[in-house]
Structures are given as structure tokens and as C-alpha cells.
Amino acid sequence: MFFFFVGGLEQQSRQVLQSGVGRCIACGSRADLVEYDKVLKLFFVPVWRWPGKQPLMHCDNCNLFFPQSFSAPPPPPSLPEHMKKECQFCARQVEPGFRFCPFCGSSL
């Protein structure tokens, strides 16, 4: 007789405490401070759930949970309109002192 276990333990956000307070350490997207539950699943069906000990940061883009102390700082404020420079090939904003686009490599 062959038996295998299909299940696992995962984290699911229960409640958003603060929205957009940090950045994801993996993908750089906005991250929210959330209360979360740990969920035991058996054959992809939740069987047991219990609350996490402390709030964590959660990225909706890559679904990563990480401690608040590891959160990347929010993006710097944008430059004034007269100082902005845009790449003519990829249309992304580039800092005014750059001679080449850091995204596509074309000459500015």
C-alpha cells in the first residue's frame, strides 16, 4: 500500500492594519502591514487555523510575508517637473544627470 501526504502549512492575511507602509524585499512592490493566520491544509482544504504572533508585512504582488524590520524604505519623492528627464525609447523617467538610460541602455 502506498500513502503520501498532500498538504502543508501556509500563511494567509487576516486583516490589513496599514496599507502601503513599506516595500517588498523580493520584488519592490508596495507592502502592507497585516495580521495573519497560519493555516494547515490537507489535500488543499484548510483543516486548522491559528493566529500569528506579531503583525508581518505582506506583498500582494508576489504573496511574500516578511518581518517589518526587513521592509525596504518607501520610494524617494519624485523630482520637480522641470528636472525630470524621459527616455525616448522606453519612456521611463531617468535622473537628470544620466547620459544613458539605466532601463534600456539607450543614449539620452
Automatic annotation (TrEMBL):
Signal sequence coordinates: none
InterPro entries to which the protein is assigned, alphabetical: Double_zinc_ribbon, Zinc_ribbon_15
A Pfam family reported for this protein in Swiss-Prot or TrEMBL: Zn_ribbon_15
Residues covered by the Zinc-ribbon domain: 23-105
The organism's place on the tree of life at top rank: Eukaryota
Protein's name according to its UniProt entry: Zinc-ribbon 15 domain-containing protein
Organism for this UniProt entry: Penstemon smallii
